[in-house]
Amino acid sequence: MKVLVGTDFHSKESVFKNFAEKAEKNKVDVILICGDITHFGNLQEACHLLSLLAGPKVPVLFVPGNCDPPSLVGAEMKEVICIHGRDVSYGDLTFLGIGASPPTPFNTPFEMAEDKITETLNRAFSNLPVNRWFILVSHSPPWNTRLDKTSFGVHAGSISLRKFIEKKQPSLVFCGHIHEAKGRDKIGRTVIINPGPARYGNYAIAQFDTEFTIELDMF
Known about the structure:
The protein is built from four helices and twelve strands. By secondary structure, the chain is α/β, with parallel strands linked by helices. The longest helix has 14 residues, at 13-26.
């Protein structure tokens, strides 16, 4: 299976259209969005932007980011599925999602306390089916990695997320949130990927076969 991954669009409509074209051109099986669909936008805007990805007629799985409205968690859209606090499986891949971010100094719309992040992850994991690949889709990166280090040198990821990864060891984690921390890292056996902000043309393509490969690229 082939998966197209993007994060941190921040309301840039042209990028959503580019993403849909990229999905069609690469014949991907799933599109993953790791949050910050809007830039402090409302539910109507978020749903409109996500609907632009439904053109290629492949499943679109997403979690809201801290700059998105919390009401996006309960939104129902054709071919677009919010996986915050739940899992969805396609073929040999099971995706589990956690949106929002830990509290920030900026009082953004969708923030969660660390204990709430732990509770949400554990509840979702308790019903997780056994599958070949377990992929965690998060807006926030795990704490104390290359992917949560801000330009000021501060680690701004989620401690609860890191503990969950250390304990459950998903195959792969996709995240975003920290724009300047594009790249990859590992916690134990788990590979962690921040594709970089889609707003500036970044994306990732993951190919799953007997193993998986990750390509980080730009439009």
